[in-house]
Write a structure and sequence with these properties.
Shape of chain A: flat
Number of strands of chain A: 3
Shape of chain B: globular
Low-confidence stretches of chain B: 1-11, 293-297
Pfam families (chain A): BPD_transp_1 (PF00528)
CATH topology of one domain in chain A: MetI-like fold
Radius of gyration of chain B: 25 Å
Helix content of chain A: 55-70%
Protein name (chain A): ABC transporter permease
Number of helices of chain B: 15
Organism (chain A): Streptomyces cellostaticus
CATH architecture of chain B: Orthogonal Bundle
Low-confidence stretches of chain A: 1-22
Oligomer: heterodimer
Strand content of chain A: under 5%
CATH class of one domain in chain A: Mainly Alpha
Number of helices of chain A: 15
GO cellular component, one term (chain A): plasma membrane
Structural class of chain B: mainly alpha
Order of helices and strands of chain B: HHHHHHHHHHHHHHH
Membrane topology (chain A): Multi-pass membrane protein
Distance between the termini of chain B: 32 Å
Distance between the termini of chain A: 28 Å
Chain lengths: 326, 297
């Protein structure tokens, strides 16, 4: 995360060899019996300190977000916290002109990422997996945007979109008064402009994930398929793609999370002004903006939290279950 | 049985030449298109503002120089902000690796039933969007007083505050990766040590940790780049412009020089240089970290 910004997936992590589980369990039993009291204390600290830090800063605050969403608080002293029930949510859903556009933009963000850069990344990965010469050089070019911070990406793309000095308008002569195209300010254009930059980055990320997935495909499958007379597309569709299922799951989760996390690019671009509102931007504006409405900001955070957990929990449960079976 | 092998050999020896050439053409064109925005930024950064403002940006350059780079570097005191980043990133990376490897050691070697639950908590926390927790976190940072420990006297607006949230947030992913890695190490290793009376700490520090070097190297590379690239935490949790790490400071700098896009381009590119160096030098670690074991599926 990226932070993060870059989303990471637990599934993209090493999985123990099958059959090790039962041995491991026995070994653990043996380990435990031999522990001295001091060892137990050391171990408690080793597991406890990181857990306390993580829980305190991530989960306690997430829970606090939920609690605060039902209150109104000006942030000055705890006594000013007032229970207001569902008021914040009511206002959010009914009266906030930015809320529904933000939800819609987050959804568009996901749909665009999954429909354009993800298949493109897969396509590039399949091409680069063909034992082709200069594969590394091509990979580096596509992956470079993933390594740079989203803030830098935002500035780089501003040089392209700037209505007065940017590349596009200079090329098509739209930087003169009269036929001016404002890629950053126009609410009908700016979301799509930002999404081009986001897709530019997402493609490389997906390519790397799929390349790793393709390396795991048994070469004999491909051979068998071509012996059966299947052409390249048929082999891919009927043999390769189905075996990429674990990678596809990772890719789907990563893309959803990226769409929910989207923030930096838009913030650098135009601070989430009209046309590019996102849930993450609304929450942040509630903190660093002039009017700090803590309960209200938390209510937006709860919406984001609920959507995120609806994706994260089933995914992790499935991952861990699979691992236990292994 | 011999027919298939012959067919295969033939296929390998005579690659479809025109198709390959076409593929290379396609890849060259696409990768150049992908590098385009960056090359454009480099081009803009190399040209003096006076020239582009009269001739326009799409024009043949009369003069190319590194003036914008040196000016951006000096005028905005970039060294100072790089220093800030170092002050945050180095302790954050080291602490994250230390803490997450300790958790991983515990859950991979000693099953106290908490194992799966603990990992679940860590990884789920890591996948949350940062904005979900920022409002209470921001308030908490304002409430925690640390007179004498941080310059601001609070956790808010301090390098310590940023280090802590980075460590807390990133340790989830690292704990998961490392615990999977440690589980692949033969149990006989630690069992023997335990029988010989080695303490838990020694098993961790002298036996398990040295064997995790490849995974640690990959994670360290990833973490350095992620933490270096972080924008959000510092934008919210740091109020004094002077205390910002470089990536977030860029936002202020660009506001200062918004009249000169060439200078902003140079500044942005300078900010990207350290990540690019790390990436080119440690490319293998970076990619293997991102996809650690993904091929196993």
């Amino acid at each position: 995360m990226t932070t993060d910004t870059t989303t990471k997936t637990p599934e993209a992590a090493a999985v123990p060899p099958p059959g090790a589980a039962s041995r491991t369990a026995r070994a653990r039993q043996g380990h435990r019996r031999l522990l001295t009291r001091r060892d137990r204390f050391t171990l408690a600290l080793m597991a406890g300190v990181p857990t306390v830090l993580h829980v305190a800063l991530v989960w306690v605050t997430a829970l606090a977000s939920i609690a605060l969403a039902f209150t109104s608080w000006d942030g000055i002293g705890f006594s000013s916290i007032k229970w207001v029930g569902l008021d914040n949510f009511q206002q959010l859903f009914n009266d906030n002109p930015q809320f529904w556009p933000a939800v819609q933009h987050n959804i568009i963000w996901f749909v665009v990422l999954i429909l354009i850069p993800t298949p493109l990344g897969l396509f590039l990965a399949v091409q680069l997996d063909k034992k082709i010469r200069f594969s590394r050089v091509y990979q580096t070019a596509f992956f470079l945007p993933v390594v740079m911070s989203l803030a830098v990406t935002g500035f780089v793309w501003q040089l392209i979109y700037n209505p007065d000095t940017g590349l596009i308008n200079s090329l098509i002569g739209a930087n003169k008064p009269g036929h001016y195209i404002d890629w950053i300010g126009d609410p009908h254009l700016n979301l799509w402009a930002v999404l081009v930059a986001a897709s530019w980055r997402h493609t490389g990320y997906m390519m790397i994930l799929y390349l790793a997935g393709l390396k795991g495909v048994d070469p004999s499958l491909r051979e068998a398929s071509s012996l059966d007379g299947a052409n390249e597309w048929q082999t891919f569709k009927n043999v390769i793609f189905p075996t990429l299922r674990p990678t596809n799951t990772v890719v789907l989760v990563v893309t959803i999370i990226e769409a929910l996390r989207a923030f930096d690019l838009v913030f650098v671009f135009n601070k989430g002004a009209q046309g590019t509102e996102l849930l993450s931007i609304l929450i942040t504006n509630n903190i660093i903006g002039e009017s700090s409405r803590i309960g209200y900001g938390s209510a937006i955070a709860v919406v984001l939290l609920v959507i995120s957990l609806a994706v994260i929990i089933p995914y992790l449960v499935a991952t861990f279950r699979k691992e236990r079976r292994a | 049985m011999s027919t298939p092998t012959v067919a295969l050999d033939l296929k390998q020896r005579t690659p479809l030449r025109p198709a390959r050439v076409l593929l290379h053409v396609f890849l060259v064109v696409t990768s150049l298109a992908w590098l385009g925005p960056l090359l454009w930024a480099v081009f803009a950064a190399l040209r003096p503002y006076s020239e582009t403002s009269t001739k326009g940006y799409v024009s043949w350059p009369d003069k190319l120089s590194f003036d914008n780079f040196t000016n951006a570097f000096k005028q905005s005191d970039m060294m100072h902000y790089f220093g800030n980043t170092l002050l945050i990133a180095v302790p954050a990376v080291l602490l994250t690796l230390l803490l997450s490897s300790m958790v991983a050691f515990y859950v991979s070697r000693f099953d106290f039933r908490l194992n799966v639950f603990l990992l679940l908590v860590f990884t789920a926390g890591n996948l949350l969007p940062q904005q979900v927790i920022i409002t209470p976190l921001y308030r908490m940072y304002l409430l925690i007083n640390l007179p004498g420990i941080t310059v601001s006297g609070k956790l808010y607006d301090s390098a310590l505050g940023l280090v802590l949230i980075h460590v807390a947030f990133q340790s989830g992913f690292c704990a998961f990766v490392l615990s999977n890695y440690m589980r692949m190490l033969p149990h006989e290793l630690t069992e023997a040590a335990l029988v010989d009376g080695a303490s838990a700490w020694r098993m961790y520090w002298q036996i398990v940790l040295p064997l995790c070097k490849p995974a640690m190297a990959a994670l360290a590379t990833l973490l350095s780049i992620w933490i270096y690239n972080d924008f959000f935490w510092a934008i919210v949790l740091i109020s004094t412009g002077e205390n910002m790490p470089i990536t977030s400071a860029l936002n202020n700098l660009s506001g200062q020089y918004f009249t000169d896009p060439n200078l902003v381009a140079a500044g942005a590119l300078l900010t990207a240089i350290p990540t690019l160096i790390v990436y080119f030098v440690l490319q293998r670690q970076f990619v293997s970290g991102l996809t650690l074991g993904a091929n196993k599926g």
